[in-house]
Give the backbone structure.
Amino acid sequence: MSVRAFTIWVCLGLVCSTALARGSRVKVLLLPAQDWRSSSPFVSPGQPQQTKHNPLKHLQKSFIQALQASKQVQVIHSVYATNRNSPSTEELLLRGFLQLGVDLYRHIHLSQSISSLNKGLDVVNRLHVWSWMPHLAARVYFYLGLCNVDLGQPENAQMYFRRAFMLNPAMKIQKGYYPNRTERAIRAAFTDFRASLHVPDLPPQFDPGKVMRQEKADAAVFVYAYKSGTGHTVLGVRIIDPGLKQGHFDREFDSPADTDIDTGIRALADAFLSCARLPWKRMHKSGKPYKLIMDTTALYTFYAKYPTRRFFHNAGFNLSFSFPVQHGLDIMGAFELATSIGDPYHDMVEGLTSYRVHVGASYYFQWPWGQIFLTPGLSIGYLGGYKITTNANCKFLGPDGPGCLPTSFDKGGNAITFSLSVLFGVRLKLTRVLFFRLSAEVEGLFAEIPLSGHQSMTDLNFPIGFQAGLSYRFQ
């Protein structure tokens, strides 16, 4: 590969990475709404369980529209909730376990029902069902509670009922449908749930951070409602952003008037986009982002100052490790091996092999698509001997051929070299831990210790290298 072609390749990589940076959008995960207004889980027969106007739906819709208007935010749903007309295999499995458990409960096969419901519960926990269909997960807990009541285990039953209300705090049950002892257990569980409720916090067993990592989201949002001390409805929006000091921030609305809410929602969206430390204007500062990065790259090098009539090519490999020190700064150490592969006029008749050890401080800037880094440093190397000639007889007839004299050769001796180096590169994200690396490096030899022959710096200096390969980030 020619130097010109390699340079074009590097430039194209940088242009593509810039385009990726400009085209990236922040993903905000939409979590289910939380309605904590209920004061009792029971309704009388014939009493409507839901009002026709749900202010939470209006609040959620308004906030989504305000975020998407920026063109920098993509509001996403859980991968399991994106297509309700074609449920996933996991959801069908959960529904199957739930339906089987309900049928067994109704036929008073309580032990078998609990076994089926527990299998459904495994799916609930594995898929974080609370983050996309909490009503479905609440039914699993609710029927586990019913089974435990009938088995004479009210303590276990209340635990399951409480978790059902945590998942679906607006759940309603027809009064008189279940026996008195069952209603007492349900009422006690609801009372305990209300006493432990801290509005607007999600229940302790819910982990938004884990769900956000699963969905590859940068932030999450949910709307909520509760009754104030005076009895009127309070509506709120909670934005969860791990980059914030508190991890989240909220905006509540005391008035249900649509005009007031719409105005406040637009102001909240603007504040979120301008103040929140989102990925396009921050790097993750929550501790060290990784333990180390290992780079394995192929290497192409040529020397700006060379003893042959035209510059000669060198190929090899590089192995380097970057250790994080603080935000935006790594310490880099690398080993490099390169050997000459000829020059256009074949002046170099005995090749040159070089070994280098690099150390330096790597400054990097990170985005969701990868990172750009700049690494100034020091290199200590070993240059092997080489032999060059411009005598055609020596090249074609050999060193012992007619017309080839010992004085026709110029020999470079072995030497230990010291140089200053500057490395510039980009890592493009392929997976969470794997990156594609492109980089360029320039060195300048400033001292050497000759081991044999004349000093090489007078004829050979300023190596310029290009690297391409893979980076692995150890978490």
Q: What stands out?
A: The chain has two domains: 25-281, 284-474. The chain has a mean pLDDT of 81. Residues 227 and 233 are 5 Å apart (CA to CA). The longest strand covers residues 434-450.
